[in-house]
Amino acid sequence: MNDSTGPRSALQRKLPVVGQPRPERADARRNRLRVLEAADRLFAEQGVKNVSLDAIAAAAGVGKGTVFRRFGDRAGLAVALLDEREQELQAKILSGPPPLGPGAAPVLRVKAFLDAYLDLLDRHVELFMDSENASDGARYRIGSYNLWHQHLALLIEEARPDLDADYTAHLVLAPLAADLHKSLRDQGFDLPRIKSGLRTATTTLLSAV
Amino acid sequence: MNDSTGPRSALQRKLPVVGQPRPERADARRNRLRVLEAADRLFAEQGVKNVSLDAIAAAAGVGKGTVFRRFGDRAGLAVALLDEREQELQAKILSGPPPLGPGAAPVLRVKAFLDAYLDLLDRHVELFMDSENASDGARYRIGSYNLWHQHLALLIEEARPDLDADYTAHLVLAPLAADLHKSLRDQGFDLPRIKSGLRTATTTLLSAV
DNA sequence: TCATAAGACGGACTGTAGTCCGCTAAAGTC
DNA sequence: GACTTTAGCGGACTACAGTCCGTCTTATGA
């Protein structure tokens, strides 16, 4: 119980570096990929709503507990699956060419974002619905919502400093809710009509003096 | 099997009058009221999220099947409970004094509606969340949404005939989603701030040339 | 290579939404 | 008041989300 274990003190040996958590264990990584792959396949084959998490766990060859520990809940799994596609859009916004990326006028950037988001949403409505509705208020808790919100708030602040940018950003995101989009499409609204309506409203809202 | 049963033919005796379904049976009415009363009480006592439909059925002294046959699902029950309060607002819109009722300028009426709706929403967020989120797309299927939508569409058409009134009405209703409102309140937005932000945006959107 | 502990695994378990169908009671008919 | 029709009743049943905890695997370092 003295220092004779050598120059490496207990502190040096045992304290993990803060902010750098252990890397993912090999089995954890293997199972994570298996689950994502199985979910992707089953969702595509049978429709998001018709696949239970038991079924995904079984198809992935893992226990159900594993799925839940890793993804939290149904919404979490959907978020993970959407992540890849959303990251593409995020990258374009942060460092792509204008008008989506930096360089264009703020209102143009907002409109470019809405167009791009609507394309993404339209392509993956079901998955978005799952990620937004599977648990209460899920939409507003997930990272990407906050990222879109922050992006819009900055642009709005720039375009219309007289507005409450924080609130207005939520306002602009509200019509992008997955279940509203689904409902509109089911009612016969086509994508161009939705895009055009939203573009018009946004222009009016953000361009006025 | 001849006409000897008298002047009353089989047709006359048996055909129900179309479009006038049998009145509600006494036991059905009794149970409907019991369930609503029990639900109202339990929701108030324990919070909407913490009450199962089994519990409501038990408290009402009816079987679970009865609750589901009558209300369809959790959302349906919440809708039924909200109905009374929403009808009050509906009445004011249809025949109350301006600016909520007829007579005021369309933009003023829209703003009055938004204010009144936000008050209602803020007072019953939990119930609204249940009615909107308990089943997929429930918000857009229920009667009152369609009523609000129709009301707004007419006013928007009047104020800005150049806009796509049908779509724009959905746009105006989007920020009234219960889970967004809850999330905003949880983030510290107070009701006046929300009202003012929405009022400003609406004015800008509908008043521009 | 072995000992050890952090952490992942997975399936049994719980609680709830929603379905089903044989049974019961209310309304209408004579 | 008995008989028939029809709607409503209700609880057993299914399926699914999400939890829990004893067991097993991996990474580490000596």
TrEMBL record, chains A, B:
Top-level taxon of the source organism: Bacteria
Keyword match Mitochondrion: no
Domain HTH tetR-type: start-end pairs: 29-89
Record keywords: DNA-binding
Pfam families: TetR_N (PF00440)
Region described as Disordered: spans on this chain: 1-26
GO molecular function, one term: DNA-binding transcription factor activity
Start-end of DNA-binding region: 52-71
Name this polypeptide is given: TetR/AcrR family transcriptional regulator
